[in-house]
Design a protein that fits this description.
Length: 182
Amino acid sequence: MTQSARHRTAQLHNNTTQRLRILMADDDRNDQLLTLMAADQANLDADFTFVDDGLELLTRLNRYGTEQTLPHLILLDLHMPKLAGHHTLTQLQAHPILWRIPVIVFSSSTRRQDIEQSIDNGARWFETKPSDFNELVTFLKTLPDKAANDHYTIETTTNQHGNPCLHEYLDLTEIDLRDNPL
């Protein structure tokens, strides 16, 4: 484990220097609100950013400049408009940097095919959305450990102004939305 990965892990375990950053892609505003309420109930020290689909998730990730601004975890629904979860995972896995961010597929699906395809496409975990609020609270309490146990480091370089930036960016023009079955 590299020095920065050890430092990052210690920060996440202690929750004293850094809040957990979670990027959640889910087109259901009720699920977004319930997640925030459950995170509050779980005393989860986290900042949530919500997007409504996979394309918006990739666009947002494309705007981040350094490891310090990337999310620690991505919660990804499967069935969304514009770019569904499986296609989003494929795009993340193809990226030389973003593939390292742990992705938890968080879906109402219980289909074995969805679970297997999610893991095959690069998800680190698959969690079926619980139907009970207390189960959601329990699940959210596991997120700091999931983020800390899945080490990744992001290499950065500097841009023409001397500011840190990611080595590569997603080319969103190559995503063919016509091949995205919902």
